[in-house]
Design goal:
The chain has 9 helices and 7 strands. It is α/β, with parallel strands linked by helices.
Length: 238
């Protein structure tokens, strides 16, 4: 798994924190890591972006951002509003593949959800994953509505013939409500294998504490100790 594309069921679900957690574990285990954000939206040229947040949490400073737009919109809309050409996502494939030859792991964080468009040709992060033959990790919200959003996302990945590396709950609440607890049982029944759950507020932790949280919150394929059955048994309401 030299390239992993991190996508989500929507915006604000915790993709950046999950990306940082995977990067932190890989780096702590002695692997070289690079992080790519093809399109950063909602940030001015001198604003702190997602790559800087990942670096602060994980210590992984190697990264590349291809384009940045000031408005918090889908990349194609952000480019249009800014009066600039959209990112040609196809041009990102070769540089990312080159990074994969230099680093043990390259993490590619998408913008928004899986089918958010980057250009007027309806190009999405799924197309980039296909060009890289890379699996997609889906980050989901914990609460009400996530069953439909997650099932649709996982189904869209499968219909494109792409590999889904599982689902990580990006911000598990300290006091989960009934819907969140039931979702631990129901998400796998909707075809969404849970491979991690990071606690709400993890992105505000200092680096050492964040690494410890990442270790507990991600599954063995990422170097963590998270076990979906144990987590469900501790929290789920059938």
């Amino acid at each position: 798994m030299s390239v992993l594309v991190v996508t989500g069921t929507g915006t604000g679900v915790g993709k950046t924190v999950v990306t940082a957690a995977i990067a932190a574990l890989a780096a702590a285990d002695g692997r070289s890591v690079a992080v790519v954000k093809p399109a950063q939206t909602g940030a001015q040229a001198d604003d702190v972006g997602d790559l800087a947040h990942v670096a602060a949490l994980s210590g992984v400073a190697e990264g590349r951002e291809f384009v940045r737009f000031p408005d918090a919109l889908a990349p194609v809309a952000a480019a249009r509003v800014a009066g600039r050409p959209p990112l040609d996502l196809a041009t990102c494939s070769a540089p990312i593949a080159a990074l994969a030859k230099q680093y043990d792991l390259v993490l590619v964080e998408g913008t928004g959800g899986l089918l958010v468009r980057y250009d007027e040709q309806k190009t999405t992060i799924a197309a980039l994953a296909a060009s890289l033959t890379a699996p997609l990790l889906v980050v989901a919200a914990p609460g009400l509505g996530t069953l439909n959003h997650t099932a649709l996302t996982v189904e869209a990945v499968a219909r494109r013939g792409l590999e889904c590396a599982g689902v990580v709950i990006g911000s598990w609440p300290a006091d989960p409500d009934l819907a969140a607890r039931c979702n631990l049982t129901d998400l796998p029944r909707h075809g969404a294998a849970i491979v991690g759950a990071l606690p709400a507020g993890a992105g505000d932790l200092p680096r050492d504490a964040f690494l410890a949280v990442a270790r507990v919150g991600l599954g063995a394929q990422f170097g963590g100790t998270f076990d979906a059955a144990d987590f469900a048994a501790a929290h789920a309401q059938a």
